Amino acid sequence: MQKEETARDAAGGRLSIRNVTKIYDPEGVNVMAVDDCSMDIAAGEVCMIVGPSGCGKTTLLNAIAGFHSITTGEIYLDDQLLCGPSKPQASMGADRIVVFQHGALFPWKTLLENVAYGPIVQGSMTKEQAHALGKVMLEEAGLSDVADKYPGEVSSGMARRVEIVRALINSPKVLLLDEPYRAMDALTKSIMHESLLEVYDRTKVTIFFITHDLEEAIFLGDRVYVMTTRPCKLKKVVDVNIPRPRDYKILSSEQFRLLVEEAKEAVHEEALKAFQAGERELA
Amino acid sequence: MSKPTGLAYFWYTLEQRMATPTPYLTMFGLSLWIFTYWLLCEGLEFWRFGKIPGPVTVLTDWFARDPFQGISIFKEEYYIHIWSSCRRIAIAFCIATGVGVPLGLFMGWSKAFRDYTFPILEVLRPIPPLAWVPLAILMFSGFETPVIFLATLASLFVTTLNTMLGVDSIDEEYFRAAGCLGSSKWQIFTNVVVPGALPFIFTGLQISVGVAWFSLVAAEMVSGDYGLGYLIVDSFMNNVTVPMVIGMLTLGLVGWGTSVMVRQVGRQLMQWQVKELAQQDR
Question: Does some domain include residue B215?
Answer without folding.
Answer: yes
